[in-house]
Fold this sequence. Notes:
The protein contains no helices and 28 strands. The chain is mostly beta strands. The chain has one domain: Neuraminidase. It has a five-stranded antiparallel beta sheet with strand order 1-3-28-27-26, with no helix packed on it.
Amino acid sequence: MRTLAALLALMVVGCGDDGGGGGGGDGGAPDAAAPGIDADPTQNPLDGIGAVTLVAGELQFVEGPQWIAADGVLLFSDIPADTIYQLAPPDTVTVFRSPSGNSNGLALDPDGALLAAEHGNRRVSRDGTTVADAYQGMRLNSPNDVVASSDGTIYFTDPPYGIADADRELPFMGVFRVPAAGGAPVAEWEGGLAARPNGIALAPDESRLYVADTADGMLRAWDVAGDGSLSGETVVTADVPGADGMAVDDVGNLFVTTSTGIRIFAPDGTSWGTITVPEQPANCAFGGADRRTLYITARTSLYRVELAAPGLPTH
């Protein structure tokens, strides 16, 4: 694999008249920023944005970017290559783990262990050991994306992208929770067989869980209870065609990868605009020492763009 560094032009598509200008409103105020972080919920995240830069190319299908603050590196999956790669900025890419179980989404638990949604093994793993691979005696479909809360609760999505229809055992496409104390996964949402729950993320204060539904082009949200269970499903926006992965900044703005680029929404669904990427993006994550670099996995390439506001820190 060769590593490339080339500058590409960035197009920023502004909000329309009905997109609104700021967060808040009747749909709910933006989540509070993390203490000590210079973040303004009224600032358009596209203000002061840099150019989208190609970091690495000639890959197969990249996904699941995850910044590792302790090491100052980014991990990301190449699903068909059965490999997790490591980026040492600015552009040095090496193999981190291979085989990877055809990993897709990556995350960190509060102790810094690596969580991986593995298509090939039909499981969620922690540092290579199984966290969840079945529900009520039936094998999972192909876990797609994963996130952990600060108390260790793990949430993941389970569409069928990594398996053939004939291999499915579950009668639904779900959003699952693994309790902080461990144990069997709990089905928090059972979508129909046509549903495609995909990207997953928590609000900055962990009071809401967001899930992108690719089939419906929709971003859903649930309230998170003290025990980690979900309730009060709402639709944040139904204007995310091809919704895939996502990242959240310090004030709760949602950066959602779609078929038209990275759509940015305030927590109430107000649209800030779109970052256009040369290839269709699949996922994104904040990184860098100041957490103002948005890394973007997009089909055969990894990109980055510098933003004015920071994204959520990793555990």
